[in-house]
Amino acid sequence: MSTNDPLRTFVTAMTHVVERHDGNEAALLDAGASLLGGLVASDDWLAEAYAVPSADRYRQYLLHLDARERFSVVSFVWRPTQRTPIHDHLTWGLIGQLRGEEVCEEYAVTEIGISKAPRFVHRLRRGEVDRVSPRIGDVHAVSHGGSPGAAISIHVYGANIGAIRRHTFDPATGTVKEFVSGYDNA
Ligand SMILES: [Fe+2]
Fold first, then answer.
1. Whole-model pTM?
2. I need a surface site. Which of 39, 43, 66, 181 has the fewest CB within 10 A?
3. Cα 2 to ligand 1 centre (Å)
4. CATH code, domain with 28
């Protein structure tokens, strides 16, 4: 990886953002969203190995893990019709759309679980950046947006997202399950 690699440049800048805005999530998300918007403005840097979809389910490839696990960078790759379960993150997150489009259904957290239906549905288009966190809204389901080909987004989370214990939700039954997502690369 050369020093001109956009991902490497992003990681260096994001490391500074995480250090500078430690303890101020709103400022961190503002600065990080600006950086991530710059990264996904061009689609010429993601290694092909981390852009490969799979027939059975969406894929998540770890691109970078901070040495102190203060943040992780992951590529998510969807084929048409693929979607995540409804899930939480339990940390701040930024989602930048690199290729294609995705649909995000946001759920409200209630005293008994989550809302029966999404409180808000929006489409993430190429170059756009979305945000999640327990402070601003942390439960959603994400699906391929319907255009031809794979949809790819670049995610940044304030933890080693593949290793932390999180939850999926079934609004029909109220069932909450723990899961650890892992990564699809080693
Ligand atoms: Fe998510």
1. 0.95
2. 43
3. 30
4. 2.60.120.10
